[in-house]
Design a protein that fits this description.
Number of domains: 2
CATH superfamily of the largest domain: Spore Coat Polysaccharide Biosynthesis Protein SpsA, Chain A
Helix content: 25-40%
Oligomer: single chain
Distance between the termini: 24 Å
CATH topology of the largest domain: Spore Coat Polysaccharide Biosynthesis Protein SpsA, Chain A
Number of helices: 7
CATH architecture of the largest domain: Alpha-Beta Complex
Shape: globular
Number of strands: 10
Radius of gyration: 19 Å
Strand content: 15-25%
Length: 238
């Protein structure tokens, strides 16, 4: 299976201006994802997709391949990751380069444990699934079986549609949320179903490893705390 890594990094960040190349722990935020890529044996290639010249130059300085400049219309607030991935696939296929799968790596989730990318790729290959996501377990108090929605009578109903609530924490099924670190998808699924997920989704659980999804300044401050931890200093995460 030939896999293309794509690191999307646009210039128009509003919550934290220029966050993709803002220095975190003395190096650009982008560098943390590049470090994880360099530790991978199973990515056949990895590129940076950006419309922003300073980000592109930073990527090049970090050793990333930047085969194209992303169109401005794919770098707006409403632009989707799917659009960015499809653009990259089309670029390579136009040049007679084909990949079986795409590995999307978001800069805003910088703390991947060492070899996480290759662990995910190995599981993805074995699973035969349409896609694989990195996820973290949802705390019990936020489990969808304990979440309520308002109905048409302004009363509460269980969000999962069940009539009776699960009373014991131990009986709750595990539930997960995407952490943004890894999205693996078969190219054929992306093209045929216009989806990064498809209908058969595998996963790799990153619960327990350091985590932040950087969107606002408070997230950045949390990231600064993480890089000062002993686990980070010992090099247990990329």
């Amino acid at each position: 299976m030939k896999i293309l890594g794509i690191i999307p990094a646009r210039g128009g960040s509003k919550g934290i201006p220029r966050k993709n190349i803002k220095l975190l722990g003395g190096k650009p935020l982008l560098a943390y994802t590049v470090d994880a890529v360099k530790a991978s044996k199973y990515l056949d290639n990895c590129i940076l997709s950006s419309e922003d010249d300073p980000i592109i130059q930073t990527g090049i300085n970090l050793g990333l391949e930047v085969p194209f400049k992303r169109p401005e219309e794919l770098a707006e607030d409403h632009s989707t990751s799917l659009d960015v991935v499809k653009h990259a696939i089309a670029f390579f296929e136009k040049n007679n380069v084909f990949f079986d799968a795409i590995c999307l790596l978001q800069v805003t989730s910088p703390f991947r444990k060492k070899l996480l990318i290759d662990e995910a790729i190995q599981k993805f290959k074995k699973s035969g699934a349409d896609s694989l996501l990195s996820v973290r377990q949802i705390p019990a108090e936020f489990n969808p079986h304990w979440v309520f929605e308002e109905n048409e009578n302004q009363r509460l109903k269980i969000a999962t549609g069940e009539e009776e609530i699960i009373t014991q924490r131990q009986q709750l099924p595990k539930a997960y949320y995407r952490d943004g670190a890894i999205y693996l998808s078969k190219t054929e699924v992306i093209k045929a179903q216009n989806s990064l997920y498809g209908k058969d989704i595998s996963f790799i659980d990153t619960t327990g490893s350091p985590y932040v999804n950087i969107d606002e300044m408070r997230d950045w401050e949390e990231a600064e705390k993480i890089i000062k931890t002993e686990k980070w200093k010992k090099g247990n995460i990329s």
